[in-house]
Write a structure and sequence with these properties.
- This protein is an alpha/beta fold and 214 residues long.
- Helix content is 51%, strand content 13%.
- Helix 8 packs across helix 9.
- The chain starts with a strand and ends in a 5-residue tail after the last helix.
- Pfam families: GerE (PF00196), Response_reg (PF00072).
- Keywords: DNA-binding, Phosphoprotein, Transcription, Transcription regulation.
- This is Response regulator.
Length: 214
């Protein structure tokens, strides 16, 4: 007799976990071995129960599903993470896939579809919800556009660049942002390298040219 597929539920909504546990409990060959309401508990229970599949929510208090997936697979790489979420936006979908998620389903999926994805994951066969597959295909069909260099700047570097564009000295930038002068110099060096310019003047010109000075 084959061993049942061990499934761990990680979702911060208790009613979702109760519903999933009840539905999956009626599926032959699938066993829910644990439930976690947050990412840290999910990682702890995964180490304890060593599930074959984890059903992972994305938006949770504390550690979100993206970071939980990344850390879980670093510790337990044989596990298959199936994202089960209400979100279909690029900011969540692509990062969790890059973090190692095996399949991606929406919470509107039928119970039979979730069970099918679990069985497929246990066999090493990923399944994407149809809307997810369509978004991914459309993304790769679109021609890639070159991003301007300033898109690589961090939020802090953008703040420093705006002040440079206003003619502030390093000391004035440090006073304005309440940071040390060495930190300012470090940010300026990074800004010049990322923008591909030689000095502060060219950085200021770049900022004005791209509307970043305001």
């Amino acid at each position: 007799m084959e061993q049942p597929i061990k499934v761990l539920l990680v979702d911060d909504h208790e009613m979702v976990r109760i519903g999933l546990a009840a539905v999956l409990g009626t599926e032959e060959g699938i066993e829910v071995v644990g439930e976690a309401s947050n990412g840290m508990d999910g990682i702890r229970l995964a180490q304890e129960y060593k599930p074959d599949v984890v059903l992972m929510d994305l938006v949770m208090e504390g550690m979100d599903g993206i970071e939980t997936t990344r850390k879980l697979l670093q510790i337990y790489p044989d596990c298959k993470v199936i994202v089960l979420t209400s979100y279909l936006d690029d900011e969540k979908m692509y990062p969790v896939i890059e973090a190692g998620a095996f399949s991606y389903l929406l919470k509107t999926s039928r119970a039979s579809e979730i069970a099918q994805a679990i069985r497929a994951a246990a066999k090493g066969q990923p399944i994407l919800e149809s809307q997810v597959a369509t978004k991914i295909m459309n993304r790769f069909r679109q021609p890639k556009q070159e991003q301007a260099p300033h898109h690589d700047l961090t939020d802090r570097e953008m703040e420093v660049l705006r002040l440079i564009a206003k003619g502030h000295s390093n000391q004035e930038v440090a006073d304005e942002l309440f940071i040390g002068i060495k930190t300012v110099k470090f940010h300026v060096t990074n800004i010049l390298a990322k923008l591909g310019v030689d000095d502060r003047t060219q950085a200021a010109i770049y900022a004005h040219k791209h509307g970043l000075a305001d």
